[in-house]
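Recall the central idea of this unit: under ordinary conditions, the amino acid sequence of a chain determines the structure it adopts. In this exercise we apply that idea directly, starting from the sequence alone.
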Amino acid sequence: MAKRTKTAELTATVQAMTDSAIAAGLDVPPMPETVIDTPEPVAKTAEIVTETAETVPEKLPLAIDLEPKMLKLVQEFDWNFAEIKTALAGKVERYAGLVVTEDNLTDMEKAQREIASLRVKIGKFRLQIKRELEKPYEKFELQIKELVGLVEDVERPLKDQLEVYENKRRDAKSSEVQAIIDEIANQVGLEAKYTSQIVIADKWLNRGTAKKEITDEIQMRVAWFLDIQNQEHQAEFFRAQKAEMAKLLCQSLSAGLATPLTYEEVEPRIEAMNDILAVKAYIEGEVARRKELEAKAAAAARDIRAVLVGEPLLSEPEEPDYRPGIEYAPDYVPDWPVEPIPMPPPARPLNPPLPPAAAVERWDCDLHIYAVTVAQMEQLKARMQSIGIQYNITGHQRV
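Accordingly, the structure predicted from this sequence is:
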């Protein structure tokens, strides 16, 4: 009986809803003659409810529609401005056009203080009214801060949790972008030391940045670093070629020299040279200078040997081409004090003394030796001492 009563009530309710919809002009199908209430078994209903709870997420709370409204604004201030203005104009009128002189200096100082007191009084009144007018706003400011605090207490934990997921997303996006960089760099042959200098732009990690935009910008940066890589490779190749050529020039041009020119000697000078011809000219000049020095040293050695054995000099010193009417600089004078070289005692002759002979004619000679080394000079001195020649060195200079 209870079941039939419930079915009748349901039928009446559905009939009323259908009649109301038809009366409102809605296109609804007519109500069937009977509405059969067929409840499902309890076990099956429980199963359906469980499945729904597992698959459908819990609904979030609806958005709160709050709009702060100003209910009343009582901000009215009135004061005796017109009265004060009229009175003040009449009072300051007598101060207008005053001229300060030495005779009225004291009175003018008093007048200035009176005028200043009016200005100070008006300023104090302004600050007083300002403080009174700011009180309602200060109260309003505290109320706003209280409302914002209520929102932030709920927003902050939610924001912190969302930030964790956002950081994970950005890290994943950063890995994807780095993979694109590595792929493009490998395709064009960009080395790792240049690829590592491509910094991932922050905007590449934004949600709205398209992959094509990211790829295009990465290609531009890879192309820029690839140009730098090619330039540095060319510079390294040039340096290697320059060093190889310099070594060959030093070896070939130094043939026959007692002290050949080595690459290590010219390397510091040619390091900054970017012209192969300039490198070649520099090495040729160094070799020529070294040949000239060795030739002079060899000639000086031959002359010393000739002096030692009593033969004529093979090379005569060039006489300076002095021209009349021209003042020439004096001979070189060393900037250090020239001290006489102490002479050792005459060496005893190796051969036994000869019997006294007739008087021999002797001469004093001036001998100038050119470009002699210390070792050669020591040999010359020893030779002259061994044959009984006394000498005195009057000066020397570096060449």
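Residues 1-7, 34-57, 328-334 have pLDDT under 50 and may be disordered.
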